[in-house]
Amino acid sequence: MSLIPSFFSGRRNNMFDMWDPFQDFPFTGGALSVPGETASFANTRIDWKETPEAHVFKADLPGVKKEEVKVEVEEGRILQISGDRRVEKEEKNDKWHRVERSSGKFMRRFRLPENVKVEEMKAGMENGVLTVTVPKAEVKKPGVKAIDISG
């Protein structure tokens, strides 16, 4: 006899499934959602590191082809990384037990610092990781000029 008989009843497959308080909550579409798709733009994780030579952005985009990703620079210094993660085709006889992978459009924007060479920016994709490298411009240090003292 269980003290909490309904805790693992219903749709639970095993004792390791956690109770999800939002399981049956009706998430209705808002201004940011697309019907039938999970809004994944907020879930696209991007690392930004600065090295002595460049700013390097790395985005984990598993299952996304490079043709489905756009890297753009807007207004001179706004880096925009966007794309579309496709929904897996659903067969008529399929029975889904859990859907956790996100799909749909994603977009992230970053304001680049002034000391970058946007025209020399490079992007590459390998093993589901997008790497965008933005080289830094050399900062010219003001030279020292000796001034003759008259008199």
Automatic annotation (TrEMBL):
Alphabetized InterPro entries for the sequence: A-crystallin/Hsp20_dom, HSP20-like_chaperone, Small_HSP
Keyword annotations from UniProtKB, A to Z: Cytoplasm, Stress response
Main location: cytoplasm
Pfam family, one: HSP20
Domain of life where this protein originates: Eukaryota
Example of a GO cellular component annotation carried by this entry: cytoplasm
Subcellular location: Cytoplasm
PROSITE patterns: SHSP (PS01031)
Domain SHSP: 37-151
Keyword Cytoplasm part of the UniProt annotation: yes
Keyword Cytoplasm set for record: yes
CDD domains tied to this protein: ACD_ScHsp26_like
Family: Belongs to the small heat shock protein (HSP20) family.
Protein name: SHSP domain-containing protein
Organism, scientific name: Vitis rotundifolia (Muscadine grape)
Source species taxonomy: Eukaryota, Viridiplantae, Streptophyta, Embryophyta, Tracheophyta
